[in-house]
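FORM 12-B: Structure-to-Sequence Request
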């Protein structure tokens, strides 16, 4: 593969940077930069220059550089360049991509502090070592840290819950503009994906220009990456990209449907349209017969109706059989937030929570719940203030007393988030577990067991007669920590066989068990518990995120344990 002039210029610039990192002679370094600038501004034909031998005569080029350029043109690579690259620690060139950190600074970091990659640099900044270097100081150190953080943010997806506030302000602002007829968020955000790559917003209007101008002038925008007639893109502080498209109102619902996706869903819709003699795009539905009238849509429901389908809720549009279900009238009646009557798995100040038992009870009461289960950590999770048996029993008594006091109408259930130990046994003896209303069992250590061991461990915990609910089944932290290796099919089977519930942990960074597993789990008869894992009274509201994901997993009210009234829940728990 050969390189064009621009590609060759990039290689020459990189050679110059490596030479500078190696502390080479400045004239040599400049020669490569000059060569790169020459190539970038080249208007003559490069092949002709090489073939005629005139390349070496160009200002600032010379024989040696001309040979290298010719080799890069011919082979697309250069031994000299590759050897230079190999002479450096692998992560060193990455450091150069941080704004304000050039070759000189990078060389100092490398030679003085032994820093050879970005994680090493970040750690050194956090420890304050970079500020002590000659020519750096506190300000530079802080700027480098910011640069690293932004670099990460830019490359990353974003938690759904972190994007939501922006969506709300943006839609509110758009809908107040006189030119805006309709405005909705689309894409992965509308589909309730747990993370969002970029945010897609669709507006219906006949007057796009002022909307575009308004959009790119929003506060909190770090960079305007496109400002067009009907489409603009910005990067907001924190790194999220937002794409805004304006379409004529008559196209709005077709565009909204198209840009909601997913791609797989769109492909299936387009195939269905074709089989009906229609071609489908973001512009609308066009009949193959030129004499026929194109279908119109005054709502998204009418887009689906034009294809003979019931409206598919956006969260189901993943190409997982939703179109067949829509055709058969077999779409699930999805669970909603209003269906919840309480929640399990909540922490208090007794372990690592920040709100007291009474504050938690008051918050649950304010939500109109019938019950709230307190499940502080067990003794092995000492790092999280796990409760020794004595303290757990005192908490059970305190909860009894609170319920008896009549201070709150909400019924507090006593429980624990009991550690599943390495061998799958539980962290309290059975006679203690038997005193609790709700036993949530969770893994908090031993993430590195191999898949068979981890699976056997979870299965054993689920077989424990006193366990009720498996907490955060895979231990994942979205955008932070991968799930541990475990055979979820076997875990789901074990839960079904033993009549246990699996949690849908509603903490925005967990949302574990993942939405992709719920349909199968529910079909096997596993009850879902949508649990906030609250560490603060305000966190009880996280159940909202859990409901979003439960809907994405096709779950109905009947498949979620905490939609049931207290009486039924107590019966299910074996506490009546
Ligand atoms: P993201 O941004 O990675 O979280 O995921 P999405 O689903 O928001 O993807 P994005 O922003 O690339 O595109 C938004 C929607 O637009 C996508 O779900 C479906 C539609 N779309 C985009 N590109 C294509 C395409 O090449 N083919 C089809 N059929 N649809 C597309
Ligand atoms: Ca998107
Ligand atoms: Ca997009
Ligand atoms: Zn936990």
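FORM 12-B RESPONSE
SEQUENCE OUT:
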């Amino acid at each position: 593969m050969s390189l064009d002039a621009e590609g060759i210029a990039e290689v020459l610039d990189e050679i110059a940077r490596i030479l500078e990192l190696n502390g080479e002679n400045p004239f040599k370094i400049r020669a490569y930069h000059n060569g790169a600038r020459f190539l970038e501004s080249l208007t003559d034909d490069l092949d002709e220059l090489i073939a005629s031998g005139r390349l070496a005569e160009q200002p600032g080029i010379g024989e040696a550089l001309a040979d290298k350029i010719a080799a890069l043109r011919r082979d697309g690579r250069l031994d000299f360049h590759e050897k230079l690259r190999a002479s450096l620690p692998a992560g060193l060139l990455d450091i150069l991509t941080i704004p304000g950190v050039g070759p000189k600074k990078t060389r100092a970091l490398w030679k003085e502090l032994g820093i050879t990659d970005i994680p090493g640099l970040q750690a050194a900044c956090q420890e304050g070592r970079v500020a002590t270097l000659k020519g750096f100081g506190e300000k530079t150190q802080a700027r480098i840290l910011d640069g690293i953080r932004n670099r990460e943010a830019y490359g990353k997806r974003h938690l759904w819950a972190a994007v939501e506030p922006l969506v709300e302000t943006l839609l509110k602002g758009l809908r107040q503009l006189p030119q805006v007829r309709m405005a909705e968020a689309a894409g992965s955000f509308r589909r309730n994906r747990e993370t969002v790559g970029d945010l897609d917003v669709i507006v219906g209007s006949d007057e796009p220009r002022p909307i575009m101008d308004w959009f790119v002038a929003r506060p909190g925008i770090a960079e305007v990456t496109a400002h067009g007639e009907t489409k603009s893109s910005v990067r907001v502080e924190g790194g999220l990209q937002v794409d805004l498209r304006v379409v004529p109102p008559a196209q709005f619902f077709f565009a909204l449907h198209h840009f909601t996706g997913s791609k797989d869903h769109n492909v299936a819709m387009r195939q269905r349209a074709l089989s009906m003699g229609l071609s489908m795009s973001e512009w609308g539905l066009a009949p193959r017969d030129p004499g026929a009238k194109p279908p119109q849509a005054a709502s998204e429901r009418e887009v689906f109706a034009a294809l003979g389908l019931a409206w598919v809720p956006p969260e189901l549009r993943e190409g997982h059989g939703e179109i067949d279900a829509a055709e058969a009238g077999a779409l699930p009646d999805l669970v909603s937030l209003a269906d919840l009557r309480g929640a399990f798995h909540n922490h208090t100040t007794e372990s690592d929570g920040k709100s007291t038992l009474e504050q938690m009870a008051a918050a649950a009461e304010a939500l109109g719940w019938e019950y709230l289960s307190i499940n502080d950590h067990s003794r092995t999770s000492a790092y999280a203030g796990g409760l020794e048996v004595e303290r757990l029993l005192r908490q059970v008594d305190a909860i009894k007393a609170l319920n008896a006091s009549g201070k709150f109408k909400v019924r507090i259930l006593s429980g624990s988030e009991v550690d599943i130990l390495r061998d799958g046994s539980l962290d309290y003896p059975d006679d203690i577990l038997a005193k609790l209303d709700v036993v949530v069992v969770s893994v908090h250590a031993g993430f590195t067991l191999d898949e068979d061991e981890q699976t056997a461990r979870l299965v054993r915990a689920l077989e424990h007669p006193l366990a009720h609910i498996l907490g955060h089944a895979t231990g994942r932290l979205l955008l932070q920590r991968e799930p541990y290796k475990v055979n979820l099919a076997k875990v789901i089977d074990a839960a079904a066989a033993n009549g246990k519930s699996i949690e849908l942990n509603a903490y925005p960074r967990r949302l574990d068990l993942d939405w992709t597993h719920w349909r199968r789990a529910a079909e096997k008869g596993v009850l879902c518990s949508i649990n906030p894992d609250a560490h603060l009274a305000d966190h009880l509201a996280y159940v909202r995120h859990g409901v979003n994901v439960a809907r994405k997993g096709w779950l109905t009210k009947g498949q979620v344990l905490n939609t049931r009234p207290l009486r039924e829940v107590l019966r299910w728990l074996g506490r009546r």
